[in-house]
C-alpha cells in the first residue's frame, strides 16, 4: 500500500469538503441552496462558531505564513504540487499491488490445504476450501483494519493541527513501509513463524493504527471516495488539509479536480504496468519489491524534502487552543468517569449521524406538526448502496475462481474498470448533468431570466434524484447478470456497465444537501460528515464482514451468491429512493 491514497476518518473536516470539489456538479448544487463551496473544513458557510482547528485560517496567521514561506527557496515552500505529485505516484504503486497480493494469499492457502508448492495456480484456485480460507483472511484484515483506522484517524488528524501535517504524515507513511516489509516477511516465511498465515493480518493492523488500510481492500469507487466523497484515511485527509493550508479558497476547486484526475490516472495505470511486469518477469514478488521500493522513495520525500504547510505560529496557536479546551473540561474523578470520557471521545466520530434523524416540520395551513423522514430515508439508501463496496475483495476472488485468472489477468481487468469509471465520472457524468440541468436560452426580459434561473435551480434536485434512481437500476441489472457471465470478457463488460453506479455517491450527497437546506438546516458540513460516517461503517467495516462470510459459506455450492446479495442491497436502495420526497423550499 502506498501513502496518500487510501480512505480516513469521517470525522475529518477536509474529507467532507472534497465531496464538493471531487464531483464538479456539486459546486452548482451548493449555489442552489445558497452556499459557497469551501475546502476549509466542515463548515461550508464558514460560521465562526463551527470553525475547528484542523483547517482553521486566520488572516494574521496567513500573513505570517506568507512571511515564513517568502524566506525559503521555492522548492522548499509548501505548494499543492507536492501533494499532486505524491498522490499520482502513490496511486500507481498501490493499484499495482492489488492483483498480485490476492494471488499470494491464494498460493499461501494452496499450501495450507495440501496443494504442494502451489506452482499450479489454476488447479489450487479450483478448490473451494482454498477460496473460503482466502475470504476468511481478507475479511479479518479488511474489517479490523477499517475499524482501527476509523477509531484512530480523528486523533491523528487533530494532532496534525498542533504538530504539523508533514510530521503526522511521516508517521503514516512509516506505517506503510512497516506493512510492506511485514507482508514480504510473512509471504516468504509464514510456515516458520508463530501464528502462520494469520501473521498477514498483523502489518495491516499496524498500518490501520496509523490511519490507513490494507492495500487490497480498495476499488476505484472506494479509492476515489477517499479523496472525493467519503474520505476515510488519515493520508487523504492530511493531503487535503495540506492543499487548503497553502492555497487561497478561490483556487482550491481546480486543485482538487487535478488531484482527482491524477488519482484516476494512477489507478488506471498501476494495474496495467503490474500486468506487463508479471508477464515479462514471471515473478510475483518482483512486483512487491518494486512497489515497496517505490513506497520507500515516496516516504523519503515526505520525511526529508516535503515542506511543512503550517507555520510555527499557527501550530502554537492550535496547541494553546487545545490546552484551553482541555482545562475547561469539568474535573471528573474516578476510573469509571475516566473510562467513559475516553470511550466518548473514541466514538465521537458517530456524533454526525444525529443530523440524519427525522426533523419536525409544520404545515402552514393548519399548523399540524409532523416529521420529515426524507433525509433519514436517503441516508438509509446510501448506507445500503455503499454496503456493496465491501464486496470487492470477494468479487475479485470470484473472477479468479470462475475464470481461472492469474494476477496478470486480474491486473488488466482492474485497469479496464478503473479507466472506465474514471472516464464516466470525469467526462460522461458532467456532460449528462450539463444537459439535464441546462437553463432555457436567455430572453430579452430580465424578469423572465430570473424566472428561468429559478426554474433551473428548482430542477437540479430532481435531476439528482433521477440520476440516483437510474444508477441503482443499472447496477441492479448488472449485478443480476454478473454471476451468469460465462466468459471473462462478458464479466468485464458487465462490470464496466456497473460503472454508472458511481453516479450514486455524488448525486445522493448533493441531494442530501438540498433536502437539509429545505428543512431549514444551516450546518451543511455536518450532513456530509454524517454520510462519511455511514460510508465508513458500511463499506469498510460491515460490508467486508458480511460479504466475506457469505462467500466463505457459498463458494463450494454457489459462488455467485455474493452478486445476488449485492443485488438485494441495491434493490433496497432503489426502493428507499422511491420514497424520498423533496420538501418544499422554505419561504425566505
From TrEMBL:
GO cellular component, one term: membrane
Entry's Gene Ontology molecular function annotations: transmembrane transporter activity
InterPro entries, per the entry: MFS, MFS_trans_sf
UniProt region (Disordered), positions on chain: 1-23, 53-75
Basic and acidic residues: bias regions: 53-62
Annotated compartments: Membrane
Membrane-spanning intervals of the chain: 81-99, 135-157, 169-190, 255-278, 284-306, 373-392, 412-436, 527-549, 561-580
Record bears the keyword Transmembrane helix: yes
Membrane topology qualifier: Multi-pass membrane protein
Location, primary (coarse class): membrane
Record's keyword terms, sorted: Membrane, Transmembrane, Transmembrane helix
Keyword Transcription regulation attributed: no
Polar residues bias locations: 1-20
PANTHER family for the chain: FI18259P1-RELATED (PTHR23507:SF1), ZGC:174356 (PTHR23507)
Stated name of the protein: Major facilitator superfamily (MFS) profile domain-containing protein
The organism of origin for this protein: Ceriporiopsis subvermispora (strain B)
Amino acid at each position: 500500500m502506498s501513502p496518500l491514497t487510501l480512505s480516513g476518518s469521517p470525522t475529518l473536516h477536509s474529507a467532507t469538503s472534497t465531496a464538493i470539489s471531487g464531483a464538479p456538479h456539486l459546486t452548482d448544487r451548493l449555489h442552489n441552496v445558497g452556499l459557497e463551496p469551501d475546502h476549509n473544513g466542515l463548515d461550508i458557510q464558514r460560521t465562526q462558531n463551527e470553525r475547528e482547528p484542523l483547517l482553521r485560517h486566520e488572516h494574521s496567521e496567513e500573513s505570517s505564513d506568507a512571511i515564513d514561506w517568502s524566506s525559503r527557496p521555492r522548492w522548499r515552500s509548501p505548494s499543492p504540487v507536492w501533494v499532486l505529485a505524491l498522490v499520482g505516484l502513490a496511486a500507481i504503486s498501490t493499484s499495482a499491488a492489488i492483483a498480485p497480493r490476492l494471488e499470494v494469499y491464494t498460493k499461501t492457502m494452496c499450501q495450507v490445504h495440501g496443494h504442494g508448492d502451489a506452482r499450479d495456480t489454476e488447479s489450487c484456485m479450483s478448490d473451494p476450501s482454498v477460496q473460503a480460507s482466502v475470504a476468511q483472511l481478507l475479511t479479518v484484515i479488511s474489517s479490523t483494519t477499517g475499524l482501527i483506522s476509523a477509531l484512530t484517524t480523528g486523533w491523528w488528524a487533530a494532532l496534525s493541527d498542533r504538530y504539523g501535517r508533514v510530521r503526522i504524515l511521516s508517521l503514516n507513511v512509516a506505517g506503510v513501509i512497516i506493512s510492506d516489509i511485514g507482508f514480504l516477511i510473512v509471504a516468504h516465511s509464514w510456515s516458520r513463524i508463530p501464528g502462520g498465515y494469520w501473521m498477514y493480518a498483523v502489518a495491516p493492523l499496524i498500518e490501520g493504527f496509523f490511519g490507513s488500510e490494507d492495500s487490497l481492500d480498495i476499488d476505484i469507487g472506494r479509492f476515489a471516495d477517499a479523496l472525493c466523497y467519503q474520505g476515510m484515511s488519515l493520508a487523504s485527509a492530511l493531503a487535503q488539509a495540506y492543499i487548503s493550508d497553502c492555497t487561497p479558497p478561490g483556487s482550491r476547486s481546480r486543485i482538487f479536480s487535478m488531484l482527482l484526475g491524477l488519482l484516476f490516472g494512477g489507478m488506471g495505470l498501476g494495474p496495467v504496468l503490474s500486468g506487463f511486469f508479471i508477464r515479462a518477469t514471471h515473478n510475483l514478488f518482483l512486483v512487491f519489491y518494486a512497489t515497496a521500493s517505490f513506497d520507500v522513495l515516496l516516504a523519503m520525500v515526505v520525511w526529508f524534502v516535503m515542506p511543512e504547510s503550517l507555520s510555527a505560529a499557527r501550530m502554537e496557536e492550535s496547541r494553546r487552543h487545545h490546552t484551553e479546551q482541555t482545562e475547561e473540561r469539568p474535573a471528573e474523578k474516578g476510573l469509571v468517569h475516566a473510562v467513559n470520557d475516553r470511550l466518548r471521545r473514541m466514538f465521537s466520530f458517530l456524533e454526525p449521524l444525529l443530523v440524519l434523524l427525522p426533523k419536525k416540520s409544520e404545515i402552514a395551513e393548519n399548523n399540524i406538526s409532523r416529521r420529515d423522514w426524507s433525509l433519514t430515508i436517503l441516508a438509509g439508501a446510501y448506507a445500503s448502496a455503499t454496503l456493496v463496496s465491501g464486496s470487492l475483495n470477494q468479487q475479485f476472488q470470484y473472477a479468479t475462481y470462475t475464470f481461472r485468472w492469474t494476477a496478470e489477468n486480474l491486473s488488466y481487468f482492474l485497469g479496464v474498470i478503473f479507466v472506465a469509471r474514471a472516464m464516466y465520472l470525469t467526462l460522461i457524468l458532467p456532460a449528462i448533468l450539463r444537459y439535464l440541468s441546462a437553463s432555457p436560452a436567455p430572453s430579452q426580459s430580465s424578469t423572465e431570466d430570473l424566472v428561468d434561473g429559478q426554474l433551473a435551480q428548482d430542477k437540479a434536485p430532481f435531476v439528482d434524484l433521477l440520476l440516483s434512481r437510474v444508477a441503482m437500476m443499472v447496477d441492479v441489472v448488472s449485478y443480476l447478470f454478473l454471476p451468469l457471465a460465462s466468459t471473462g470478457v462478458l464479466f468485464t463488460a458487465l462490470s464496466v456497465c456497473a460503472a454508472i453506479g458511481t453516479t450514486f455517491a455524488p448525486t445522493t450527497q448533493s441531494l442530501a444537501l438540498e433536502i437539509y437546506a429545505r428543512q431549514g438546516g444551516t450546518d451543511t458540513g455536518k450532513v456530509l460528515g454524517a454520510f462519511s460516517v455511514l460510508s465508513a461503517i458500511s463499506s469498510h467495516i460491515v460490508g467486508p464482514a458480511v460479504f466475506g462470510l457469505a462467500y466463505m459459506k457459498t463458494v463450494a455450492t454457489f459462488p455467485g451468491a455474493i452478486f445476488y446479495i449485492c443485488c438485494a442491497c441495491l434493490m433496497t436502495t432503489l426502493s428507499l429512493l422511491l420514497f424520498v420526497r423533496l420538501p418544499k423550499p422554505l419561504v425566505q
